[in-house]
Amino acid sequence: MTKKTIALVAHDHRKNDLIQWSLEHKEKLQKHKLCATGTTGKLLEEKLGVTIEKFLSGPIGGDFQIGTAIVEGKIDMLIFFWDPLESMAHDPDIKALLRIATLYNIPMACNQTSADFFINSPLMESKYDKKLTVLNNYTNARKSYN
Questions:
Q1: pLDDT, tens digit, 9 for 90 and up, residues 88-117
Q2: What total of structural domains would you count in the chain?
């Protein structure tokens, strides 16, 4: 089995949903390295009884820290239970995180259903070589300017 690093993030109104989902999938999740933004990580660690690498709270830089870890190749999957009906003061940070996850082509679940599909995929148990087509095309196009 290939151990993955999974980032777990949830807006305030979705934290309980992510905790419940994580409890339902605890056996599978504990086989992987887990990280989360501050408050979400603290709550998950308490409820699951597993070690969670905790970044700062999202509004004070945690979203950027997770984005940086994605760029550095340290995160393999993002599970982000966000609240599409609630405007957040740090919406630009959230958009940046989602953009980076898309650019670096990591699996990203933004609701319970997609998270269920990911955690139950046979790809969770094996190495997966993701394609970085968009990123590589962008980088290669910029080389001609140098």
A1: 666 788 889 999 999 999 999 999 999 999
A2: 1
Structural domain including 56 reads 5-143
Residues annotated as part of the active site? 63
For the stretch 130-137, contacts whose Cβ atoms lie closer than 8 Å and that sit 24 or more positions apart, written own/partner, are 130/105, 130/106, 131/105, 132/104, 132/105, 133/105, 134/102, 134/103, 134/105, 135/103, 135/104, 135/105
- Known binding-site residues for substrate equal 11, 15, 37-40, 57-58, 90
- pTM for the complete prediction? 0.91
Q: Taking the mean position of all CA atoms in its chain, how far away is CA 17?
A: 15
